[in-house]
Amino acid sequence: MVKDEIAGRLEIAFSQHGFAQMSVAELKVASGVSLRTLYRYYPSKESMVIGALEHRHQRYLSLLDEEQSSNPMDSVIAIFDGLGQWMENNAPKGCLSMNALAAFPHNEEVNEAVQEHKQQIVQLLARRSASPELAMELFLIHEGASLAWPTMGDQAIVAAKNVVRKILE
């Protein structure tokens, strides 16, 4: 439980302040534990990033799993509604995974964590759309909407849902 709580606090710190801004000393304060405890669970800043990303990934998937429908169109639109809600409440500076990749472009473990997250989103879109052959197209719309969110806000979600409806009709 302690590890998960630390990961949640690290996620918030990275989301609010970015990766470059946060020193390990600041992450210790943000995590609410001693440096020794922080390092016991996360022995490097990169492992702290991965812990935060994995925690965030689970929270995002849980949000998307809340609203499901037997109708594939409604089920995919619910994913985009969830994305809009997520961006508004949890990602004011954009996709944390992509921000982590930009901050640690040569770190293999960070890259793998981001790849795993993105691949699971593709799989979710394949299942929910009942059209695995369209999963990558839907994923690109999802990613585009999340990247456009910081500048376009809800307009990005509305436009993404309009395109999804056209593709799935």
From TrEMBL:
<feature type="domain" description="HTH tetR-type">
    <location>
        <begin position="1"/>
        <end position="60"/>
    </location>
</feature>
<protein>
    <submittedName>
        <fullName>TetR family transcriptional regulator</fullName>
    </submittedName>
</protein>
<dbReference type="Pfam" id="PF00440">
    <property type="entry name" value="TetR_N"/>
</dbReference>
<dbReference type="InterPro" id="IPR001647">
    <property type="entry name" value="HTH_TetR"/>
</dbReference>
<keyword id="KW-0804">Transcription</keyword>
<feature type="DNA-binding region" description="H-T-H motif">
    <location>
        <begin position="23"/>
        <end position="42"/>
    </location>
</feature>
<dbReference type="InterPro" id="IPR036271">
    <property type="entry name" value="Tet_transcr_reg_TetR-rel_C_sf"/>
</dbReference>
<dbReference type="GO" id="GO:0003677">
    <property type="term" value="F:DNA binding"/>
</dbReference>
<dbReference type="InterPro" id="IPR009057">
    <property type="entry name" value="Homeodomain-like_sf"/>
</dbReference>
<keyword id="KW-0238">DNA-binding</keyword>
<keyword id="KW-0805">Transcription regulation</keyword>
